[in-house]
């Protein structure tokens, strides 16, 4: 079972502040795009580092975990708090062209619509620190025989994000017709459901709008912005694209590699991999026969039985999946590097002393440019290419260069405690009913007994479904 | 649904261009996530000579979750129940997104070649298998002839 690692938190990155202050236009733009909820967009700048200092509930010890009946209460946050968190999360998933690292981005392209509940701040920091590959825009197809012109043509047609998906037409959330509902006629329960559906729909619409605004900004600004990749950078990255073995999409060859067996995985696939929901240890599958019922009954007696297991390596099934990443030695652009528009291919620029510097406008950039030149001198292409393949053998999950699935979803333990607490409460309620049934049975009024039982059953059902909804954050 | 993930498109293409011996998997025209599958019973197994129909469905979050697979042809096997559901670890908690439709179907074919009555889904069949193996194998053969051999 899970050993909590004493990994030091990522250090705050100064480049973050720099980045967001370069980007003052966003706030007003976002305002115009979703005027109905002013305060929700006020802090658009926060989206870059959304929750970056969010406290992580990693402190509980082994002993706490073995006594889940005393697990911390499921924290009940208000609807508006939860909605704010969801909205902030959605903002953190936007791809913005000027939040880039080595030609990739801080948020996923959108190959997957689900399972995006990883901790955004942790992933963004890991990318900025070059411990995790950035989210590169994938190529759907790639042919090594393409000319540079072919490749550039393909690359210039890429969007930042896959949105809108064609499947959006059939999206249940978007189909919800909130206008036809008279809120004053709803019961408390119905109102809760209605409000949640309404919120989900609005958030989805906002996401579409926000990302569309980012695409537009990218198209308008990329010709002149220093934060848009130069052709040299694009070619350097995609000239030797490789296929991710899980999504079958093509990426620059600097991918993440599994710590255990050194297989490639793109960042978008990596953030998909997570622990299964807390479950009972089954030597067997619950589907067949009455096995499942037995197990459920057992678990109600002892919620301790619920477990959460490490996610395993998709390639070799080693528990506690983690990856390492070796960034390209001669490309360091965007956050923590030079502006990507200024990147020149080392092969082209070497031997030719007069690099065009008209794009360079201030001293900061000149310095950055020298930094890049240093990179070129130190790292020959050949040595850079061998970095990813240099490693032999496996690395432990605790190695400082390893990013594990638990590291980017530190809430797994809270989830387990919540699941156990919920089960314990249900068991307690069930035995209370049992006790009162015993009392009633000694009383001989059968009609009364039935009425009470029914009332209790109903209130229990109500309570359970309330809890269920409350737990769906 | 017109936007199919590249992975599903490529898997489908490769299933056609490089088919697995003894296995076919053809996507339905209406829903490209739904496959009509056939698996030939392995040689020297009680399923030899039979052609078993299955259905395979790729859920929305495939490949992060396993495909859903079910036998449509009746089969007498300790790890396959009356409804055609299959007890196979890689279809459940041991699924990995690095596995594919191809590898899953091969695993099912292997399960036909090597039934595992110690980890049963169909308890009655498993019991028969453990206690009267010869007879159970004979029944499996009969069912194969009756349900899985095309006239
Ligand atoms: Zn991938
Ligand atoms: Zn591995």
From TrEMBL, chain A:
CDD domains: SIP5-like
InterPro entries, A to Z: Sip5/DA2 (IPR039301), Znf_C2H2_type (IPR013087)
UniProt biased composition (Polar residues): 12-22
Domain C2H2-type: 261-284
Source organism superkingdom: Eukaryota
One GO CC term, this protein: cytoplasm
Span list, region Disordered: 1-85, 280-300
The family this protein is said to belong to: Belongs to the SIP5 family.
Name assigned to this protein: C2H2-type domain-containing protein
Lineage of the organism: Eukaryota, Fungi, Dikarya, Ascomycota, Saccharomycotina
UniProtKB/TrEMBL annotation, chain B:
SMART domains per record: UBCc
Top-level taxon of the source organism: Eukaryota
Pfam families, alphabetized: UQ_con
CDD domains, sorted: UBCc_UBE2N
E.C. designation(s): 2.3.2.23
Alphabetical list of InterPro entries matching this protein: UBC, UBQ-conjugating_AS, UBQ-conjugating_enzyme/RWD
Catalytic residues as annotated in Swiss-Prot or TrEMBL: 87
Entry-linked PROSITE patterns: UBC_1, UBC_2
Gene3D superfamilies (alphabetical): Ubiquitin Conjugating Enzyme
Domain UBC core: 3-149
SUPFAM superfamilies: UBC-like (SSF54495)
Keywords, sorted A to Z: ATP-binding, Nucleotide-binding, Transferase, Ubl conjugation pathway
GO molecular function: ATP binding; ubiquitin conjugating enzyme activity
Family as reported in the entry's similarity comment: Belongs to the ubiquitin-conjugating enzyme family.
Name by which UniProt lists this protein: E2 ubiquitin-conjugating enzyme
Organism placement in taxonomy: Eukaryota, Fungi, Dikarya, Ascomycota, Saccharomycotina
């Amino acid at each position: 079972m899970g050993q909590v690692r004493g990994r030091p938190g990522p250090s705050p990155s100064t480049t973050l502040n720099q980045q967001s202050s370069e980007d003052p236009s966003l706030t007003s733009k976002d305002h115009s795009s979703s005027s109905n909820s002013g305060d929700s967009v006020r802090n658009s700048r926060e989206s870059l580092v959304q929750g970056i200092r969010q406290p992580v509930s990693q402190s509980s010890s082994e002993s706490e975990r073995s006594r889940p009946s005393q697990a911390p209460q499921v924290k009940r946050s208000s609807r508006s708090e939860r909605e704010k968190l969801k909205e902030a999360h959605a903002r953190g998933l936007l791809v913005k062209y000027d939040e880039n690292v080595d030609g990739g981005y801080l948020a996923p392209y959108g190959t997957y619509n689900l399972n995006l509940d990883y901790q955004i701040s942790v992933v963004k920091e890991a990318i900025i620190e070059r411990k995790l590959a950035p989210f590169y825009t994938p190529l759907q197809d790639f042919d090594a025989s393409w000319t540079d012109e072919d490749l550039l043509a393909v690359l210039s047609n890429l969007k930042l994000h896959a949105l809108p998906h064609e499947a959006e037409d059939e999206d249940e959330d978007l189909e919800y017709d909130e206008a036809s509902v008279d809120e004053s006629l709803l019961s408390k329960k119905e109102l809760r459901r209605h409000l949640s559906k309404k919120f989900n729909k609005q958030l989805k619409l906002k996401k579409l709008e926000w990302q569309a605004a980012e695409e537009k900004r990218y198209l308008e600004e990329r010709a002149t912005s220093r934060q848009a990749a130069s052709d040299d950078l694009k070619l350097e990255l995609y000239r030797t694209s490789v296929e991710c073995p899980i999504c079958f999409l093509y990426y620059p060859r600097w991918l993440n590699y599994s710590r255990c067996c050194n297989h490639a995985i793109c960042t978008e696939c990596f953030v998909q991999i997570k622990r299964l929901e807390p479950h009972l240890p089954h030597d067997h599958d619950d589907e067949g026969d009455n096995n499942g019922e037995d197990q459920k009954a057992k678990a109600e007696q002892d919620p301790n039985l619920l477990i959460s297991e490490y996610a395993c390596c998709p390639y070799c099934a080693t528990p506690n999946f983690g990856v390492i990443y070796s960034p390209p030695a001669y490309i360091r652009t965007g956050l923590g590097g030079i502006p990507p528009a200024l990147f020149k291919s080392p092969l082209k620029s070497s031997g030719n002393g007069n690099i065009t510097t008209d794009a360079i406008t201030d001293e900061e950039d000149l310095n950055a440019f020298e930094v890049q030149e240093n990179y070129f001198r130190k790292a020959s292409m050949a040595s850079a290419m061998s970095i990813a393949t240099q490693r032999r053998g496996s690395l432990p999950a605790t190695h400082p260069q390893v990013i594990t699935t638990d590291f980017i979803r530190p809430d797994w333990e809270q989830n387990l405690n919540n699941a156990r607490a919920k089960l314990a409460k249900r068991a307690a309620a069930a035995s209370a009913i049992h006790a009162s049934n015993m009392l009633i049975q000694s009383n001989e009024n059968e009609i009364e007994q039935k009425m009470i039982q029914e009332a209790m059953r109903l209130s229990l059902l109500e309570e359970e479904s309330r809890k269920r909804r409350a737990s769906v954050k | 649904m017109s936007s199919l993930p590249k992975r599903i498109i490529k898997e489908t293409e490769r299933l056609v261009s490089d088919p697995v011996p003894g296995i076919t998997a053809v996507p339905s025209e209406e829903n490209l996530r739904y496959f009509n599958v056939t698996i030939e019973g392995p040689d020297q197994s009680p399923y030899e000579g039979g052609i078993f129909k299955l259905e395979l469905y790729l859920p929305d979050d495939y490949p992060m979750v396993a495909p859903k697979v079910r036998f449509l042809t009746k089969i007498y096997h300790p790890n396959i129940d009356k409804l055609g559901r299959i007890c196979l670890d890689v279809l459940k908690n041991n699924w990995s997104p690095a596995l594919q439709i191809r590898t899953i179907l091969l695993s099912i074919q292997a399960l036909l070649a090597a039934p595992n009555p110690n980890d049963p889904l169909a308890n009655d069949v498993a019991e028969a298998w453990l206690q009267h193996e010869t007879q159970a194998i004979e029944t499996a053969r009969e069912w194969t002839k009756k349900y899985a051999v095309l006239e």
